[in-house]
């Protein structure tokens, strides 16, 4: 594979010490130093939330905890959790801790039900956000001379502007293409010599496919890095995009409620883990049912407390994302804790006839089958009174056949593989190449049509 650029060349040969580290005094600090910074900032943050946000003051008073009870990092467990509901109930400004004339930007996540979640940032919050972004893009080998084509929609969604400001502050040339119009995106890559593409992984694959149809030789393209976000990216999907587009792809993790993109990012040394910006976030991993901490390195639900975020202080936010976190030093030289990439969101889980099913499990099974694309859709209904799951699987052109027997055998083989992993049976429906709708934003893999 062609490795384009000095930073990526160094990474490809394991020379991680040649890669830039944005802030080594934090990113390579000892655990003691990181924890000391976290504790000092946590104490300030809890006080800030208590003094300025009635919602926190009421909950903390009810729990019998005051800011002066926070003396160690472990004392964070004395604080109540915050969840999405709290931000919905206080829509739009109830959780704000600064006067609105100090707020310089507003973002929101689209609520699938009810009100959206609104978050605001003051000037200091914007600086903090840009710092997080500068770290994670440099982990991916992005350098100030890069030309970054932003294929995220700008709008209220945090992904577009969040990455834009940090990349621009690093010195990159920003090309604000926005989402959609794939042929135009490809034309812009060629005209402007874009070197970095920011998009969801599924949209990058779509750009790749359309480019191939247009006769683009991606190996000769100026593009060298893909910065992904907005939806989970399986290793198989990332590997496929890297191979076909001749680029290096990393993804980052974040959520609107605690800031947006930039909570953690993937380095090039260990591709399944993401470094957490620990001086800006305290992480906890808890048992999703009991809320109690799990042992270090064990899977559980990620809980985040942003530090130094002033417009909306959020304490112990329950992400519903399942991960595990390790703290040993990484081969890239960084010492900040690393979280495993989030594959399943605990609230994305489907319960089918009493069994938990994650869309990521379906994705894993499909990625191991030749002849199918990474595009799929799960449709659940209970028209017959019983939960019924149908998985729409898109075929690659070479897997398509005129023989009904052959196609039916292929379909049944996929059903059997899915049953082996999911433990519940499902129906597979084969869809012709290109038959599953592509999305320019977050891909919706699940359509739940069940009536209560
Ligand atoms: Zn690393």
TrEMBL record:
It is an enzyme of class 6 (ligase). Residues 101-304 form the AMP-dependent synthetase/ligase domain. Pathway: Aromatic compound metabolism; phenylacetate degradation. Keywords: Ligase, Nucleotide-binding. Its EC number is 6.2.1.30. It comes from the Bacteria. Belongs to the phenylacetyl-CoA ligase family. Monomer. The keyword Nucleotide-binding applies. InterPro entries: AMP-bd_C_sf, AMP-dep_Lig_C, AMP-dep_synth/lig_dom, ANL_N_sf, PA_CoA_ligase. Gene3D superfamilies: 3.30.300.30, N-terminal domain of ligase-like. It comes from Slackia faecicanis. PANTHER family: BLR5969 PROTEIN. This is Phenylacetate-coenzyme A ligase. Catalyzes the activation of phenylacetic acid (PA) to phenylacetyl-CoA (PA-CoA). Residues 354-450 form the AMP-dependent ligase C-terminal domain. It catalyses: 2-phenylacetate + ATP + CoA = phenylacetyl-CoA + AMP + diphosphate. Pfam families: AMP-binding (PF00501), AMP-binding_C_2 (PF14535). One of its GO terms (biological process) is phenylacetate catabolic process. GO terms for molecular function: nucleotide binding; phenylacetate-CoA ligase activity. The keyword Nucleotide-binding applies.
């Amino acid at each position: 594979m062609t490795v384009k650029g000095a930073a990526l060349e160094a990474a490809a040969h394991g020379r991680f010490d040649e890669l830039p580290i944005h802030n080594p005094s934090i990113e390579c600090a000892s655990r003691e130093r990181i924890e000391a910074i976290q504790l000092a900032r946590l104490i300030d943050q809890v006080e800030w939330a208590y003094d300025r946000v009635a919602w926190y003051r009421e909950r903390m008073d009810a729990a019998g905890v005051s800011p002066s009870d926070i003396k160690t990092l472990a004392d964070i467990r004395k604080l109540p959790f915050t969840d999405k509901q709290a931000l919905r109930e206080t829509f739009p400004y109830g959780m704000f801790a600064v006067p609105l004339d100090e707020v310089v930007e507003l973002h929101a996540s689209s609520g699938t039900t009810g009100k959206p979640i609104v978050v605001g940032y003051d000037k200091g919050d914007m600086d903090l956000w840009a710092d997080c972004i500068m770290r994670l893009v440099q982990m991916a080998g992005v350098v100030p001379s890069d030309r970054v084509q932003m294929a995220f929609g700008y709008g209220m969604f945090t992904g577009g502007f969040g990455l834009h400001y940090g990349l621009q502050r690093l010195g990159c040339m920003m090309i604000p293409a926005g989402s959609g119009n794939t042929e135009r995106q490809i034309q812009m890559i060629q005209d402007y010599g874009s070197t970095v593409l920011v998009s969801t992984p599924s949209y990058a694959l779509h750009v790749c496919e359309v480019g191939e149809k247009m006769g683009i030789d991606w190996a000769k393209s100026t593009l060298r890095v893909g910065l992904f976000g907005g939806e989970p990216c399986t290793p198989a999907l990332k590997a496929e995009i890297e191979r076909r587009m001749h680029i290096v792809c990393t993804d980052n993790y974040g959520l609107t409620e605690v800031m947006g993109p930039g909570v953690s990012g993937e380095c090039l040394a260990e591709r399944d883990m993401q470094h957490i910006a620990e001086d800006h976030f305290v992480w906890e991993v808890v048992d999703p049912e009991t809320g109690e901490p799990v042992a270090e390195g064990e899977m559980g639900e990620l809980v985040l407390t942003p530090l130094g975020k002033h417009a909306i202080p959020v304490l112990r936010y329950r992400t519903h994302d399942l991960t595990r976190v390790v703290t040993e030093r990484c081969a890239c030289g960084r010492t900040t804790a690393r979280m495993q990439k989030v594959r399943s969101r605990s609230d994305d889980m489907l319960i089918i006839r009493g069994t938990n099913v994650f869309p990521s499990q379906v994705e894993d099974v499909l990625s191991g089958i030749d002849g199918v694309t990474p595009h799929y859709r799960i449709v659940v209904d209970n028209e017959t009174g019983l939960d019924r799951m149908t998985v729409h699987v898109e075929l690659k052109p070479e897997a398509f056949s005129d023989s009904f027997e052959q196609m039916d055998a292929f379909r049944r083989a996929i059903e059997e593989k899915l049953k082996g992993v999911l433990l519940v049976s499902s129906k597979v429906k084969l869809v012709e190449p290109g038959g599953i709708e592509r999305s320019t934003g977050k891909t919706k893999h699940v359509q739940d049509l069940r009536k209560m």
